[in-house]
Amino acid sequence: MSNFKLIKQYRDKMDQILDAIVMQEKDNIDRVVKCLADTIEQGKLVHVFGTGGHSVMAAMEIFYRAGGLVQINPIFPPGVSVAASYPNTERITGYAKLILDYYRVKENDVIIVSNVNGINALTIDSALEAKKRGATVIAVTSRDFASNVPHGIAARHPSNKNLHELGDIVLDLHVPVGDAIVEIPNFEQKVASSSTIAICFLLNGIVALVVEELLSRGVTPPVWKSANVAGGDEANKKYIGEYKQLIHHLY
């Protein structure tokens, strides 16, 4: 018989993280919503880059997704996802410039850089390179995680900078150092990571708020409909035709 106390422990600890996001990040969420709404109202794209093997799911979650904003340009460079990380690309310095060139991140653009630990080479290089180009960097990360990783370890960028130090706007995920949150008796290592749920919760919530903000301005934003319901393909066809030359991974 499974010990469902562990599932309840996971739920309770996730609730604490999500509550912290809702209660403590309100001001910065409001700033992000206005920033993204301005970008979409201007007909521009919002770049989203999850700069780690699992953080890449940030871009996956809000790209071409039922109920999601159409004007999302996900950044999916080769080797970043754990599905094809040869070698551990998130630790390679110098890769970010090539990536941002390919995805055409430029002055006055907005880019969401999402990485829970906020310390690796690709994360820091991406934030620095985007700022160098004059783009607005929205950092989605955990201050607590980054602040508790010692300087000089192999996972860190050579500068030892943290993503939360570089974002123009910072959204704190409130994920603890190490990511895993469930404690099992007589087992030292915590299990069950929390960051993906926190990231997906935060970004989907922001999508809803951006749509609400645009509607309050009299703007009807393009939003994807599920392709798995009647009329879905037909509803999405016009957006695909309009944006497939602008969004690399739209087909």
Descriptive account of the structure:
This protein is an alpha/beta fold. It has a single domain, classed as 3-Layer(aba) Sandwich (Rossmann fold). 41% of the residues lie in helices and 12% in strands. The protein is built from 8 helices and 7 strands; from the N terminus they run ααβαβαβαβαβββαα. Strands 2-1-3-4-5 form a 5-stranded parallel sheet, sandwiched between helices. The protein has a two-stranded antiparallel ribbon with strand order 6-7. The N and C termini lie far apart (46 Å). The mean pLDDT is 95.
List the SSEs and their pairings.
Layout: H1 4-24, H2 26-41, E1 46-50, H3 57-62, E2 72-74, H4 95-102, E3 110-114, H5 121-132, E4 136-141, H6 143-147, E5 169-172, E6 180-182, E7 191-193, H7 195-216, H8 232-243
Parallel strand pairs: 1-2, 1-3, 3-4, 4-5
Antiparallel strand pairs: 6-7
Give me some keywords for this one.
five-stranded parallel β-sheet, 251 residues, Rossmann fold, 41% helix, 8 helices, 7 strands, two-stranded antiparallel sheet, globular, alpha/beta, single chain
Short description:
With 251 residues, this protein is α/β, with parallel strands linked by helices. The chain has helices at 4-24, 26-41, 57-62, 95-102, 121-132, 143-147, 195-216, 232-243, and strands at residues 46-50, 72-74, 110-114, 136-141, 169-172, 180-182, 191-193. The chain has one domain (13-243): Rossmann fold, CATH 3.40.50.10490.
Arithmetic mean of pLDDT: 95
Which H/E pattern describes the elements?
HHEHEHEHEHEEEHH
Unreliable stretches, pLDDT < 50, 5 or more residues?
Answer: none
CATH topology, which one? Rossmann fold
User: Mind summarizing the main beta sheet?
Assistant: 5 strands, parallel
Class from secondary-structure proportions: alpha/beta
**What percent of residues adopt helix (DSSP H or I)?**
40-55%
Taken from the alpha-carbon principal axes, the silhouette is globular
The number of E-state strands comes to: 7
N-to-C terminal Cα separation, in Å? 46 Å
Overall CATH class: Alpha Beta
Question: What is the CA-atom radius of gyration, in angstroms?
Answer: 18 Å
Q: List the quaternary state of the chains.
A: single chain
Number of helices: 8
